[in-house]
From TrEMBL:
Signal peptide: none annotated. It comes from Actinokineospora soli. Keywords: Kinase, Transferase. Residues 307-319 have a biased composition (Low complexity). Residues 256-319 are annotated as: Disordered. One of its GO terms (molecular function) is kinase activity. CDD domains: ASKHA_NBD_eukNAGK-like (cd24007). This is N-acetylglucosamine kinase.
Length: 319
């Protein structure tokens, strides 16, 4: 009995599940980040193989679906795809069907075939989905060129807030002090040195500190406001009706936008045939006058599926 394996590969972590022909989950595996653009090709392929190998535990595999951040690398570069195919073969798995993490996230959070998905994880991207596949994309440029509102972006802005305060001789306060302590530094030059000796994507580790202090610290609140606006703008570029699925580490229960006050603007999510009114549910998670209904589930749990016969307004589903 050949198993099928589904893989969720992000910049920080990789998860794989093995399922039997009747849909029962029979194995799970996890490993480090597998975005080839931020983690490196060899490390990314190795981490995918490690997660799949753990999920299969030596059993036969007939199909692999790889949903990943940085999928464009594999789709555009035959050598990169060959690296992943070779790594998977080493654990008894066939060549993967490659999809973007956004396509996989939408499928896991909505029963509809069309809608919008916003990924706010280590990186950020918004995508319009039509017939279960990518139709239009905004963002997704990676840490060097974009990723606004992502965990990387939040962490970078947190470090910059500390550096600005140190230069001005201002009081650091609990938030900036926590960032400095997490970095293991005590002064301006030392912080710059510490950050630059680590891979750039490692800045994402400071993101939870932004969420933790956003309700009480103006500097953290400012970062959250700008992140929420950036993520809303990404989704608005591609949204044309249907459900909005939100996924990624920044969409966890401690998501920073819970502390944001960005308005639900009709300019961001204009009316559509499926959504005659722009608010409150045709909007992303930033707090509105009448907050949208948003459900959240732990990352390791299957997300609840919205009813296909519910209101004609697009729902916002968080996974």
């Amino acid at each position: 009995m050949d198993l099928a394996v589904g893989i969720d590969a992000g910049g920080t972590s990789t998860r794989a599940i093995a399922v039997s022909p009747d849909g029962a989950v029979v194995g799970r595996g996890a490993a480090g980040g597998a975005n080839p653009n931020s983690n490196g090709l060899a490390a990314a392929a190795s981490n995918v193989a490690a997660a799949v190998g753990a999920a299969l535990a030596g059993r036969a595999c007939g199909c692999v679906v790889l949903g990943m951040a940085g999928s464009s690398k594999l789709l555009a570069d035959p050598a990169a795809l060959a690296e992943f195919t070779s790594a998977l073969a080493s654990v008894g798995a066939p060549a993967p069907v490659v999809l973007s993490d956004a396509e996989v996230a939408f499928a896991s959070g909505a029963v509809e075939a069309d809608g919008t998905v916003l990924i706010a994880g280590t990186g950020s991207i918004a995508m319009r989905i039509a017939a279960h596949r990518r139709a239009e994309t905004a963002g997704g440029y990676g840490w060097l060129l974009g990723d606004e509102g992502s965990a990387f972006w939040l962490g970078r802005e947190a470090v910059r807030a500390v550096l600005d305060a140190l230069l001005r001789g201002a009081d650091l306060g609990p938030f900036r002090s926590a960032v400095l302590a997490e970095a293991g530094a005590s002064a301006f030059g030392e912080l710059i040195t510490v950050v630059n000796t680590r891979p750039p994507i490692d800045l994402a580790r400071f993101a939870p500190l932004v969420s933790a202090h956003a309700s009480e610290d103006p500097a953290a609140q400012d970062i959250v406001e700008r992140a929420a606006q950036a993520l809303a703008a990404l989704a608005a570029q591609v949204h044309h009706g249907g459900p909005v699925v939100i996924a990624g580490s920044v969409a966890a229960p401690t998501r920073p936008w819970e502390h944001a006050s960005a308005p639900c603007s009709p300019k961001r999510f204009p009316p559509s045939p499926d959504c005659p009114t722009p608010a409150p549910r045709c909007c992303p998670p930033p707090t509105c006058a009448r907050p949208p209904t948003v459900s959240s589930v732990p990352p390791a749990s299957p997300p609840p599926l919205p009813s296909a016969t519910a209101s004609r307004r697009p729902s916002t589903q968080m996974i």
